[in-house]
């Protein structure tokens, strides 16, 4: 076991997992919030577009989305997210497209979590916001969404945990994250079972505190009515 | 009557098959206090909510201070800023402190500086008797206190007219008076008010006019004294008979 830790960059691989999780979480939160706003907006075209996005993306396997990002968008359409001349362009492109794919996929789940959060906000809150003269946008940013986020913390935590674990799919498009390294070690070494436990433990160390933090926050920040 | 501030003309509205507002014609003068009473389902809440377009109407016109209610958008938001609204269920912003509840409108809509808005908010909270609760959240206050904060929140916008949609119906009996006292004082200071309520005492004490609604129509309009002692229509006699015998 000591040899494995010495010969392979296990911490580096988990660092990549954290890196993917962090940026994908931000991306998913931004896209998901926009989608959620679209889905509760009074404009029917926006509502339909938001619903279509969620239905299509949520029901597509993540593997498909990432392979599409890599083979379809990067290699066939040749849309680069890194300078193609740079020596690390293959690695950088893979990482960045993985973040895009993970963001796009999890945005659908963030959207649904936020929408369930919006449903916890009583209609009267929106009416009161409009009654004091706030515009639709102001009602949303000042009154509805702050309460919706608080009501959605627990489901958002679940999305974040799922996202952390789903970063493992990025290994199929060549991102050197934890599960990719695990496969590599298992192919090269014999200590398969111990290696498996090591990586499983690594993910638990990442996700367990996340879950606890979100549970704590959901109680702490809950809107008292 | 002084010059009309709120004018409703031939207003019609349906909820599905139900004709909730039938040929509503009503003028409310500046500084006038109008109490709308009637059995539940008579359309009085809908009427109140239609005046700041929380309910849309199908035909007819509603004008406030000479301006017709605009379609949804910036212009409507501006007009709503001039119309205070107090709800049955208070609807204080649950995630904001009492002080922030009162300052939100002035800061975001009237673009008042935060310090000025807070100073004015504290004066208003003082006036409705909840200044010492300014840093608390709505859920920490009693219903009566919450409703008084809601009144202060409306007043902070310096509204031309205030709408009260059954402001005391969700309150425990011992809290009703503290809210009514605030409303009576407002009426004395000359605020134009449209009040949907079952509080006959308030109507007698503060109203200039009572509007009696039944089945979506305005059945009778009169001074409180006339209306309560000498109702003209059978519908009003029947209604008053039911509520005044207890």
TrEMBL record, chain A:
Localization in the cell: Cell membrane
GO molecular function: transmembrane transporter activity
Cleaved signal peptide residues: none
Membrane topology of the entry: Multi-pass membrane protein
UniProt entry keywords in alphabetical sequence: Amino-acid transport, Cell membrane, Membrane, Transmembrane, Transmembrane helix, Transport
Keyword Transport annotated: yes
GO BP terms, alphabetized: amino acid transport
GO cellular component, one term: ATP-binding cassette (ABC) transporter complex
InterPro entries: AA_ABC_transptr_permease_3TM (IPR010065), ArtM/GltK/GlnP/TcyL/YhdX-like (IPR043429), MetI-like (IPR000515), MetI-like_sf (IPR035906)
Domain ABC transmembrane type-1: residue ranges: 14-214
Residue intervals passing through the bilayer: 12-38, 59-77, 191-216
Main localization, broad class: membrane
Family in the record: Belongs to the binding-protein-dependent transport system permease family. HisMQ subfamily.
Name of the protein in question: Glutamate ABC transporter permease
UniProtKB/TrEMBL annotation, chain B:
Name assigned to this protein: ABC-type polar-amino-acid transporter
InterPro entries: AAA+_ATPase (IPR003593), ABC_ATPase_HisP-typ (IPR030679), ABC_transporter-like_ATP-bd (IPR003439), ABC_transporter-like_CS (IPR017871), MetN_ABC_transporter-like (IPR050086), P-loop_NTPase (IPR027417)
Domain of life: Bacteria
Organism: Knoellia subterranea KCTC 19937
Subcellular location: Cell membrane
A cellular-component GO term for this protein: plasma membrane
Primary site of residence: membrane
Catalytic activity: a polar amino acid(out) + ATP + H2O = a polar amino acid(in) + ADP + phosphate + H(+)
Keywords from the named record: Amino-acid transport, ATP-binding, Cell membrane, Membrane, Nucleotide-binding, Transport
GO molecular function: ATP binding; ATP hydrolysis activity; ATPase-coupled polar amino acid-transporter activity
Domain ABC transporter: 6-240
Family of this protein: Belongs to the ABC transporter superfamily.
CDD domains: ABC_HisP_GlnQ
EC number: 7.4.2.1
Lineage start: Bacteria, Bacillati, Actinomycetota, Actinomycetes, Micrococcales
């Amino acid at each position: 076991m000591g040899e494995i830790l010495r010969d392979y960059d296990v911490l580096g691989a988990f660092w990549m997992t954290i890196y993917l999780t962090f940026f994908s979480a931000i991306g998913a939160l931004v896209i998901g919030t926009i989608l959620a706003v679209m889905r509760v907006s009074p404009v029917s075209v926006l509502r339909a577009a938001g619903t279509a996005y969620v239905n299509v993306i949520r029901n597509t396997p993540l593997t498909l989305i990432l392979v599409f990002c890599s083979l379809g968008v990067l290699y066939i359409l040749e849309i680069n997210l890194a300078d193609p001349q740079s020596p690390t362009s293959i690695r950088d492109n893979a990482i960045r497209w993985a973040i895009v794919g993970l963001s796009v996929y999890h945005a659908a789940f963030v959207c649904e979590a936020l929408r369930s959060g919006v449903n916890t906000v009583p209609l009267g809150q929106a009416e009161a916001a409009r009654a004091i003269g706030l515009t639709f946008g102001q009602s949303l940013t000042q009154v509805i969404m702050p309460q919706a986020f608080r009501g959605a913390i627990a489901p958002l935590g679940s999305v974040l945990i799922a996202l952390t674990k789903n970063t493992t799919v990025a290994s199929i498009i060549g991102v050197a994250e934890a599960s990719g390294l695990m496969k590599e070690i298992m192919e090269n070494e014999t200590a398969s079972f111990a290696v498996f436990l090591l990586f499983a433990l690594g993910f638990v160390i990442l996700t367990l505190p996340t879950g606890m933090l979100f549970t704590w926050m959901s109680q702490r920040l809950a809107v008292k009515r | 009557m002084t010059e009309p501030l709120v004018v409703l003309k031939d207003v019609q509205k349906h909820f599905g098959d139900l004709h909730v507002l039938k040929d509503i014609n009503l003028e409310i003068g500046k500084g006038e206090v109008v109490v709308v009473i009637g059995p539940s389902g008579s359309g009085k809440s809908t009427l109140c909510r239609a005046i700041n377009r929380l309910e849309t109407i199908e035909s007819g016109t509603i004008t406030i201070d000479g301006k017709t209610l605009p379609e949804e958008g910036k212009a409507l938001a501006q007009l709503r800023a001039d119309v205070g609204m107090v709800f049955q269920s208070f609807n204080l912003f649950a995630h904001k402190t009492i002080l922030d509840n009162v300052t939100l409108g002035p800061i975001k809509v009237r673009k008042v500086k935060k310090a000025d808005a807070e100073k004015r908010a504290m004066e208003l909270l003082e006036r409705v008797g909840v200044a010492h609760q300014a840093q608390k959240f709505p859920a920490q206050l009693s219903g009566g206190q919450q409703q008084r904060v809601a009144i202060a929140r409306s007043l902070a916008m310096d509204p031309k007219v205030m709408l009260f949609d059954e402001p005391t119906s969700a309150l425990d009996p011992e809290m009703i008076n503290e809210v009514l006292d605030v409303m009576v004082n407002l009426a004395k200071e000359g605020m134009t008010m449209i009040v949907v309520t079952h509080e006959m005492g308030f109507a007698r004490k503060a109203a200039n006019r009572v509007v009696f609604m039944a089945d979506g129509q305005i059945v009778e309009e009169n001074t409180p004294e006339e209306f309560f002692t000498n109702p003209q229509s059978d519908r009003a006699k029947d209604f008053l008979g039911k509520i005044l015998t207890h």
